[in-house]
Write a structure and sequence with these properties.
By secondary structure, this protein is an alpha/beta fold. The chain has helices at 3-10, 34-40, 55-62, 78-87, 98-109, and strands spanning 13-16, 27-30, 45-49, 67-70, 91-93. The protein has a single domain, classed as Udp-n-acetylmuramoylalanyl-d-glutamate--2,6- Diaminopimelate Ligase, Chain: A, domain 1 (3-Layer(aba) Sandwich). Helix 3 packs parallel to helix 4. The chain starts with a helix and ends with a helix.
Amino acid sequence: MQLDELVRKLGLRVCCAEGSLGRDVRGGYVGDLLSDVMANSREGDIWITRQVHQNIVAVASLKDLAGIILIQGSEPTPDTAAKAGAEGIPILVTDLPAFEIVGRIYQLIHS
């Protein structure tokens, strides 16, 4: 499934890197501990987190993740959004809690 389809079906708000929404989403990873995400996420995963600082962009780039979803209406800091835009890493926002957005994403990917 492509990221733009997830955005459309889940009503996610795109904060940056709109031009990179054609990426394939192959799975997902939920976590706020950066070392855990670096160790266990896989290329093409969508990362669901509450972290908003610049380091999330570095991790997403390092692991070649499809994008980042910030939960519960969290907003990326301005420097995070700028870095993500420059690196082509989409940051998306949902008002939903992690448990609910993960369930919806799982259903979409595996249906």
